[in-house]
Structures are given as C-alpha cells and as structure tokens.
UniProtKB/TrEMBL annotation:
GO biological processes: glutamate biosynthetic process
Keyword ATP-binding among UniProt keywords: no
Sequence ranges assigned to domain Glutamate/phenylalanine/leucine/valine/L-tryptophan dehydrogenase C-terminal in this UniProt record: 217-458
Signal peptide bounds: none
Family according to the record: Belongs to the Glu/Leu/Phe/Val dehydrogenases family.
Any one annotated GO CC term: cytosol
InterPro entries membership: Aminoacid_DH-like_N_sf, Glu/Leu/Phe/Val/Trp_DH, Glu/Leu/Phe/Val/Trp_DH_C, Glu/Leu/Phe/Val/Trp_DH_dimer, Glu/Leu/Phe/Val_DH_AS, Glu_DH, Glu_Leu_Phe_Val_DH, NAD(P)-bd_dom_sf
Site (Important for catalysis): 180
Name the UniProt record assigns to this protein: Glutamate dehydrogenase
Amino-acid positions noted as binding NAD(+) in the UniProt annotation, renumbered to this chain: 224, 255
SMART domains: ELFV_dehydrog
Annotated coiled-coil segments of the chain: none
Length: 460
C-alpha cells in the first residue's frame, strides 16, 4: 500500500515539479559536479511538455534512470618518462547508457579532465548518439594526462599503461572508444596496438578514429567540423541565409576547428579568426587553412606561428577576446563553457546572426540565454557536432563488413545524417510547442528515442 501511494504521489506532481525534484536528487547525489549538473539541467529544462504527454516516462522512472550511469570506472595510470621518472595519472570511463547499442564516445587526454567533466560528456553523448539514428549508446572517458610537450615514446608508454586497464572494460559489442581533445590518430594507434597485444585478436571495431590504413574510415578526422557546418547551413537556409559571403570566427585549432574552417571556406565564407590555448589569430584577409593544418597537424606548433607566414595577421594572447571580433557566424569548437555572458553580449553587439556549437557545451547557460533572447540562430552541440560520432558508427559498420567506403561516399552519408538530424529537431520542436527552437528539439528528440527503447527493455 505504501509503495502504491508513493507512486501515485509522483504521478500527481506537475511535470515541472517532477523535473525539479529529480534534479535536486541528482544535485544531492553528485555534489560539486558543476559540469555534470549543468548538462543534466540543460536537457531537463526542455522536457516538461514530454512528461505532460507521456506520464508513462514518470511512472517508469526514465528520468532518474537515464541520468545515472550504468557504470563509472576510475583507475590509476602509471607510466615512466624519458628520464626514468615515474608519473601517476587518473583514468576514467563512464558507460552511461547502452539502450540503443554499445557504449560509444571519445577519450580525452587533458589536465582539466575530472569525473564531473567525463560524466557531462557521457550524458551529452547519449542524446547526440541517439540523434544520429544509428545503433550506438552513450559513453566517454579519458585521463588528466597532458600530451603537450611529451615525446612520442612517453605518449606511447602512457597509452599502453592506460589501455592495459581499459581493455578489460571495452570491446566491439560492449564499448567502442574514439578520440577527443588530446587523442588523435597517433594516440589511437598506440591504444589500439596495446589492445591487440592484450587480446591477441584484431578486433578493428573496438576503436574508431583509426588510421585509414589500419581499419579507419575516410572523412572521420573531418567529420565533426564538416558536420557542424552542414547542420548550420541547414539552419541558415531556413532563414534565407548562407555561409556564402559571411564572415566566420572559429575557436580552437584542432580537428573540429580546422575542418569546420575548411568546409565553411568551401561554402563561400571568409574565416577571419581561430585560436588555441595560448591565444588567437585574426587575419582580415581570411585564415589560410592549409597553413593552420601544417602548423597543427605536421609541426605541432602554437597558433602564433601563423604570423610568420602571414604578416598581415595579428595575434592576441587572451583567447577569450576572439569573440569581440565582429562576425556573421561564430563556431565555438574548442571546449566547454568557453563563451560566457560577456562574450555572448559582445557577439550580439557586433551583429552576429548565427552560432553553431562545434565543441561540447561551449556556451554556458547565461550565454545561451543572451544569444537566444536576441534572436541569434543557435545550433546546439548535441545536434550540430554529431557528425563525428555518426562517421564513427559508419567506421564500425565498415569494420564489421571488412570493407571501406570512398571519401565521397562517407561525406555524402554524413551530409545526409546532418540534414536528417536538423529536420528531426525542427519537427520535434514544433510538435512540443517550441517551433524553431533547436535546443528544445534536439533535447526532446534524443531523449524520446532513448526513453522509448528503455520502456521496451523494462527495468534495465
């Protein structure tokens, strides 16, 4: 009788009361995890009309279940540098939700990585992966190891130690990692090599982002940046706008940033600024993407070396000032919460028309409010940057078939996936009372796909 009354009480709450009460429980259970709490509320805040129309989600505790990881793994990573000194880092893997398929999400090597950041990234990944329409669940991982300034041999030793522990938790049908910040083709190669050594098997599908000569997919490196531009272009077209003839700012200078710049330029835009952790460059003549590729992918140099090749450009050592440069379109592609209220206000004051999140949650809550309040077209990360994981899923398919698609085939499939995600987000936003709101559309579309599958699976 007591259980029945308790259940009845939950169902009698308003949808908003239920959402707020559930989030208070998450706060109590995860104290101090600001990034994770920010990410969960960003989704929860969109879901009131969903629970009003679907009380079965409340009855089955979907919100509570979807916000608690199936598994959260932390482990010690011990490695030796070139001078024989032993170092200890912390490794993470959050296996958040496998309702739609094996856990899928990248590995990040960065000194700022914490359990809260890993959980926020893993939570976002659930819905991002769901939006692709491909059979993959949500996960994320990495370490507080900093690959900057390390030799290839030091990075290899770290990766081998990291994989020695991680290998017992992953597999082609269990959990499929990929790269993220600080983890590129080199690191994936070392990780995959150690995995093969431990498992005594060539399980190509256990990793994505591999070298194309070693089972990787063409266009994987470009996919997140390309996909962001494809999504934003669909958003612009809805309003009679385009990248063509627009000025664009792109933060960061890693894979996402470089290939967002490349595709935006291909679409007729002039990219005038990009950045790295030490500052930003502004080139009124338009950023030469090939120079940035040479500096970052080949020479592994800082972005200020761009001025050696293009003396008309200028460098600023405060990377946040990049958002004070007037532009039509901003593509934040660096890291979480890089745009706050002041930066958003500067973008609005300078006449920005659209912003597409290439990184994960690069705009904080106040920035999102400023931008949307001022009618800036806003493409949220979980939709706009889903291209990377979409092509990762395609890589898994190619590995399973022992087959490789051409770059043109993969790019065409990617373009279609991003168009479909945009259409789904727009239709869902309209259906649930927020026409044109891509934040609401992405959150609800991703949530409903997973929630419906969780109902089918019972109490798992």
């Amino acid at each position: 009788m007591q259980v029945s009354e308790q259940k009845s009480g939950v169902l009698q709450q308003s949808a908003l009361e239920y959402i707020k009460a559930t989030h208070r429980k998450i706060k109590d259970r995860n104290p101090g995890e600001s990034e994770f709490l920010q990410a969960t509320w960003e989704v929860f805040d969109s879901l009131q009309p969903v629970f009003e129309q679907h009380p079965e989600y409340v009855e089955e505790g979907i919100l509570e279940r979807i916000s608690e990881p199936e598994r959260f793994i932390t482990f010690r990573v011990t490695w030796e540098d070139d001078n024989g000194i032993v170092h200890v880092n912390r490794g993470y893997r959050v296996q958040f939700n496998s309702t739609l398929g094996p856990f899928k999400g990248g590995l990040r090597f960065h000194p700022s990585l914490t359990g809260s950041v890993v959980k926020f990234l893993g939570f976002e990944q659930i819905f991002k992966n769901a939006l692709t329409g491909l059979p993959i669940g949500g996960g994320k991982g990495g370490s507080d190891f900093d690959p900057k300034g390390k030799s290839d041999r030091e990075i290899m030793r770290f990766c081998q130690s990291f994989m020695t522990e991680l290998s017992r938790h992953i597999g082609p049908d269990i959990d499929v990692p990929a790269g993220d910040i600080g983890v590129g083709k080199r690191e994936i190669g070392y990780l995959f090599g150690q995995y093969k050594r431990i498992r005594n098997a060539f399980e190509a599908g256990v990793f994505t982002g591999k070298n194309p000569d070693n089972g990787g997919s063409l266009i994987r490196k470009e996919a997140t940046g390309y996909g962001t531009v494809y999504f934003v272009e669909e958003m612009l077209k809805e309003q009679g706008l385009s990248f063509a003839g627009s000025t664009v700012i792109v933060s960061g200078s890693g894979n996402v940033s470089i290939y967002a710049m490349e595709k935006a330029t291909e679409f007729g835009a002039k990219v005038i600024a990009c950045s790295d952790s030490e500052g930003y460059i502004y080139d009124p003549d338009g950023i030469d993407v090939e120079t940035v590729k040479q500096l970052k992918e080949v020479e592994r140099k800082r972005i200020y070396h761009y001025l050696e090749h293009h003396p008309n450009a200028r460098f600023g050592n405060d990377k946040s000032e990049i958002w004070t440069i007037p532009c039509d379109i901003a593509l934040p592609c660096a890291t979480q919460n890089e745009i706050g209220r002041e930066s958003a206000e500067a973008l609005v004051d300078n006449g920005i028309k659209a912003l597409g999140e290439g990184a994960n949650m690069p705009c904080d809550d106040e920035a999102v409010r400023v931008l949307t309040h001022n009618q800036v077209l806003f493409a949220p990360a979980k939709a706009a940057n889903a291209g990377g994981v979409a092509v990762s899923a395609m890589e898994m398919s190619q590995n399973s078939m022992r087959y490789s698609w051409t770059a043109e085939e993969v790019d065409a499939k990617l373009h279609q996936v991003m168009k479909t995600i945009y259409k789904n987000c727009m239709e869902t936003a309209g259906k649930y009372g927020s026409p044109g709101n891509l934040i609401v559309g992405a959150n609800i579309a991703g949530f409903k796909k997973v929630a419906d599958a969780m109902l089918d699976h019972g109490l798992s």
